[in-house]
Amino acid sequence: MQKLTRIIILSIALLMISGCSYFGVYKRDLPQGNLVTQGMVEQLRPGMSRRQVVDLMGSPLLEAPFDASQWDYVYRLDEAYGDVEQRRVTLTFSGGRVVDIEREGDFSKAPPLGDERGIGPDSEATSADQPTPLDNVTPDRP
């Protein structure tokens, strides 16, 4: 009986710790916020209207709650096994027009947008030999 109890306790203990891994858990890159590229920032000019900014950059991630004259576009990439990269563009408006553009972060290189395979499981149906749904679409003619 005592031997059976030891075997059961040992089995339960092995089962409990088998879910833990010595090598750590899987991590992935975590991008958050507005994607801000150097090309977008280079197109910003003082005197642009709010509508022109929204057309170029999209909606801001942050608007000052008590003063709507400041918009912040923030992009943050928390790399799984690396550093945290953050880019920030702060636009200040006066009379509905951009008067100041502040940049923070490294805009010289494009942020990584994922792996080459894309999102989702691999599928042989999307190989180059088989047509995709867009192959049969004819463009609109003027």
From TrEMBL:
Residues 103-142 are annotated as: Disordered. Its main location: membrane. GO terms for cellular component: Bam protein complex. It is found in: Cell outer membrane. The chain crosses the membrane at residues 7-26. Signal peptide: none annotated. Gene3D superfamilies: 3.30.1450.10. The keyword Coiled coil does not apply. It is a lipid-anchor. Residues 124-135 have a biased composition (Polar residues). Residues 33-101 form the Outer membrane protein assembly factor BamE domain. Belongs to the BamE family. Part of the Bam complex. This is Outer membrane protein assembly factor BamE. It comes from Halomonas aestuarii. The lineage of its organism: Bacteria, Pseudomonadati, Pseudomonadota, Gammaproteobacteria, Oceanospirillales.
